Amino acid sequence: MKTKEVEQERHVLVVFPHPDDEAFGVSGTIAIHTSRGTPVTYACLTLGEMGRNLGNPPFATRESLPDIRKAELKKAAEAIGIQDLRMMGLRDKTLEFEDDQKMMNLITDLINELNPSLIITFYPGYSVHPDHEATARAVVRAVRALKPEKRPKLHCVAFANNTLEEIGEADIVYDIRHVYHKKLEAMKAHISQTIWMLKDLEATVANESGNSELKDRFHFEHFWTYTFDEKDHVSDIKQKS
Question: What does pLDDT average to over the chain?
Answer without folding.
Answer: 89
